[in-house]
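Worked example

This section walks through a single chain of length 343. The input is the sequence exactly as stored; nothing has been trimmed or padded.
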Amino acid sequence: MTVYLMSDRDIGAQMLRRRWLMIGGCIFLIAVSMFVFTVLTVAMGSQHTEILYLFALGGIMWQHWHFGKQNLGVLALSRIATRTGPISPFERYTLVAGAICGMAAAYLIVGKAFQQLYSPNGNLSLITSPIEIISTQFRWFQYILAASAIAYTVYNFRRFTIATASLYILGVCFFLPVFLAIDLPQYVFIFATSGYAHGAQYIVILFYHSLGSMDLIRRSDNSALAGSQSRNDADHAIAARRIIRAVRLISPLLFFALAMTVTINFYTSHSLMTFGDIIWRIVNGAMRLHLEGSTVTGMSFGLIWGILLCHFWLDSFFWRLKDKVPREWIKSRYSFLFTSPSN
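Given that input, the structure is written out below as C-alpha cells.
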C-alpha cells in the first residue's frame, strides 16, 4: 500500500532527495531478503540456516514495532484534529512500551515455529532461551501497561475526548489480545488479526490522504480558472484534474484489494497463479535460466518478504513528524487537521 503514496509528487521528491538512503535501502533489503531465502535454506543444504531464522524473526519483530509506532502517529494526528494538545511523555512512553510488547508477542507466537521451519537443526539456544524467558514476562508487563493506561486516562480525562481516549487505550492494548490468547487453540488467528487491524488503519490514513490531495487539486482548479485567459483551456485542465481526483479517491481501496490478494496468494493456493509460478515463468521461461524449484520458491518468498521490509523502511521516513520535510508534507495533505473550523 506504500506504493500508493508514490503517486504523490512530494513523496517522490523526498525519495529522490535521500535516494541513497531510501531507494538504496529498499534495493538492499530486497536483495538481502532474496539471497537469504534462496541460499541459506535447508532445501539448498546450507550450513548457516541460523542466519535465515534470525532474519525472518527480526522481520516479524520489526513488523510489530512498526504497528506500535503507527498507533503513536495516529494518536498524535487525532490530538491535532481534536485540538486537545500534544501527546504527553507518559502517553508516548506507554505507546512505545506497547510496541515493545508486540515484539515480545511476535517471538512467543512464531519464534519456535520459525525455528522448526527455517533452522530445525540449528543450535540457537544461547539466543532463544534468554529471549523466551524475557518475552514470557512481557505478558504481565502488558497487563500492567493496560491497567496503567486506563487509570491514567480516567485520572486525566479532561485532556482527552472520547475519540482520543479510545485511540490511546486501544493503541497501548493493541497486542493485549495476543497475550490473552497465547494458551488458546485460536492464538495464531488472533495473532494475524493484529496485521489486519493495522492494514485497515492504514487504509483509513491513505483515504484521508486522497481527500487531502483532492483538496489541493480543487484549489489548483480555482487558481487555474481565475488566472486563465482561455475558459476552454481552463475547463480542459479542470476536467483532467477531476479524473486524477477520482483515481486518487479510489486508489487506497484498490491497493487494499491488491494487498489482500497478495496475502491470500502468499499463504494459500486460492488463486489462479501463485507468485512462485510468476517468477518461475520469468526466470525459466523468459530468461531461460532453468533454476530448480527450491530456488524459485526462495526467490519468490524473499521478494515478498523484501517488499514487506521496504514498507517498514519507507514509512519510517514518510511519517516522521520530527523532520521538517515530512511534517510540512503532512500539514499540506492533512490540512483539515490543522485548520480551525472557523477558517
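What to look for: The chain has a mean pLDDT of 77.
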